[in-house]
Amino acid sequence: MARRYGDRVALDGVSFSVEPGQTFGFVGPNGAGKTTTMRIILGVLSADAGEVRWNGSPVDAGTRRRFGYMPEERGLYPKMRVRTQLVYLASLHGVVAAEAAADRWIERLGLGDRAEDRVEALSLGNQQRVQLAAALVHEPELLVLDEPFSGLDPVGVDVLSGVLAEYAATGVPVVFSSHQLELVERICEAVAIIKDGRLVASGTVEALRGTGTGAIRVIVEGDPEIDVPGARVLDRGPNGWVFEGAGSDAILDAARAAGRVSYFAVERPTLADLFREAVK
Ligand SMILES: Nc1ncnc2c1ncn2[C@@H]1O[C@H](COP(=O)(O)OP(=O)(O)OP(=O)(O)O)[C@@H](O)[C@H]1O
Where is the ABC transporter domain positioned along the sequence (predicted)? Predict the structure, then answer.
């Protein structure tokens, strides 16, 4: 898809697909076009070119009513009480048992004590939980969240990642943007990396990280010197030594000669490494 704002190109040929039940991370530097893409998926914004398909067919308004969206600008009614708000949103989406649905998500997100509070009186993290409940209360068939983890404390991060994983496990694709790459690497099966409105990489985290860089990290108890003939030392610090340019047998033999080997593994690039490489 493509999209301009005036003569600024926000998206230029971004294309990717998300599988049922997949947690999909959407990453890229500030201004890369993540929010624009999500708005187009949800139909809040139209694309200048391209289309959004759902189960192979172009999405229409009826399909989009079954999507759930947590926008970056967080669209809650500040004066409305948490429970009232969720019941209202559930009914808007046509949920028959709106009250039961609201209560279920209030419970699941640990908002029981806050259900009768006005949204504006909640802490930022709790407002975020309500916002998530608002995106989930009609049990959407696709969940799209714009930076849902920003501003959450570690417990909030755990609650949210648990909810997202559980929800994806029901077969629903869960797409979210984030700048927290370690988190994305930990909870996402697949990612798309965009920069300046273009897709620079996409696929499963496993495939993108590949089978290895050819470098090997080894830790020997007591951290003695390890001499591997012919190898380059890429790193040496509290997390051991990283060698490149020698066979794994040669490295292991040298490590054993130095002492008791407590760690030995092929190095793989992290998502953060891939990101830095991709957006260079
Ligand atoms: N309403 C708008 N009018 C003009 N330009 C816009 C508008 N919305 C976004 N842009 C521009 O489009 C580009 C993509 O913005 P977008 O918000 O999609 O990026 P993003 O990847 O979500 O960024 P961030 O990580 O900072 O949230 C940016 O250059 C931005 O300045």
Answer: 2-221
